[in-house]
Design brief:
single chain, 8-stranded parallel barrel, two-stranded antiparallel ribbon, 16% strand, globular
């Protein structure tokens, strides 16, 4: 029996061993935990916060802080992507967003921020009906490149085949394929689906792909050759997936499951390490920190960065799900403004609500538990204290 077959059987075994509860006579469900359900446990050793390292690396690209700005128009513009890059983070531009549909999207960003709640989604659908312009993809990516920071752009799986060549010709360093759910085995009767494994193999740039929410799905994505896997469905503060299509992933369990898939894939592949990137539900620094303790290498932030003074949404926040033309699965919401991008990332904080100084909080948590870097912090003990 091959090693991949053994691991496939192992994944079935692991999932069947997870705690299940009886929903009714005909259905059982796995018990899963959100980030609010777990807490970090200090150890016998402590350190000074300045002695810990928050750096991480994906492929050949190294970053001082494990923060990725989400590809959402309310969060990442070319200007904020550049600002994040200069702070040691990574900003990912949505290549299906307003910046690639309009020469000057600022008036439309301002309009979306001012829309009354009852008409916001319909107007967002109308604004995003404007076609994507390949020349604007090139122009925006060149703007980021010229600033001397790492260039990253995102497309949905549905648009990747249409625009990836334009993205590569424009000179992207990291390519992100981000959707609500991305699988390695999409099936379609009316078109040829994206062959992720062949697509990634043929590219010359590292690919981050997701979302995935369990061991099996993540393991299959890792086998495509992805450099990183996004865990979760993103856009937690603006997502209506649970209300519209019934889909939800408690993030603590999802991150731990995908981290286990990473470990098993390392054994299967002879040592290839795939980055686990938590995506969604990180509205405060406590949740952000717990993602690392559960096994994440980096975190993709949306609403925390949408609260920055420089954010394109001016305190309003929305994602790709809100613009779907027939079934919007997201909405625009007011997250407010709490400080500059630097305040949110590095402080100083002037309140105790977990909305600013994310990296300072991470350093403090690592020091309190005695870990010197993010890889070792993944071994941090946690307790389960369900909030429900």
């Amino acid at each position: 029996m091959t090693r991949s077959c053994i691991l496939s059987l192992l994944s079935i075994s692991l999932e069947s061993m997870s705690q299940e509860i009886e929903i009714g006579l005909g259905k059982k469900g796995r018990l899963a935990y959100s980030l609010d359900d777990v807490s970090i446990v200090p150890s016998r050793r402590t350190r000074d916060p300045q002695d810990v390292s928050t750096s991480w690396q994906v492929d050949a690209y190294e970053f001082d802080v494990p923060v990725i700005g989400a590809p959402m128009d309310s969060v990442t513009s070319p200007a904020t992507a550049i600002a994040m890059g200069k702070m040691g983070a990574l900003g990912v531009l949505d290549l299906e967003g307003l910046w690639t549909r309009y020469d000057d999207p600022q008036p439309l960003l301002d309009e979306i921020a001012e829309l009354p709640a009852e008409s916001a989604t319909e107007r967002i659908q109308q604004i995003y009906a404007e076609p994507i312009k390949p020349e604007l993809i090139v122009e925006r990516l060149h703007e980021i490149r010229d600033a001397g920071v790492t260039v990253a752009g995102a497309l949905s799986p549905q648009r990747t085949q249409d625009y990836y060549s334009t993205v590569l010709e424009a000179g992207v360093d990291l390519f992100v394929i981000r959707g609500t759910v991305v699988s390695a085995e999409h099936v379609s009767q009316d078109h040829e689906p994206l062959n992720l494994k062949k697509f990634i193999y043929d590219l010359d740039v590292p690919v981050i792909v997701g979302g995935a929410a369990n061991y099996t799905a993540a393991l299959h994505l890792m086998r495509t050759g992805a450099a990183g896997v996004l865990v979760g469905f993103g856009g937690g503060a603006v997502s209506a997936n649970r209300n519209t299509i019934g889909v939800h992933a408690p993030m603590a369990t999802a991150i731990a499951d995908v981290a286990e898939a990473r470990r098993d894939y390392m054994d299967e592949s002879g040592g290839r390490y795939v980055q686990v990137i938590a995506d969604g539900g990180m509205g405060d620094s406590g949740s952000f920190i717990k993602a690392f303790a559960l096994g994440a290498d980096a975190v993709m932030l949306g609403s925390p960065l949408a609260r920055a003074e420089e954010a394109p949404g001016k305190g309003m926040h929305w994602g790709a799900e809100a613009r779907h033309q027939t079934l919007p699965r997201g909405f625009r919401t007011n997250v407010g403004t709490v400080g500059t991008l630097e305040d949110i990332m590095f402080g100083p904080s002037h309140n105790a609500d977990g909305t600013t100084n994310y990296i300072g909080a991470l350093r403090r948590a690592m020091a309190t538990t005695g870990y010197v870097d993010l890889k070792s912090f993944q071994r941090c003990p946690v307790t389960v204290a369900p909030t429900r």
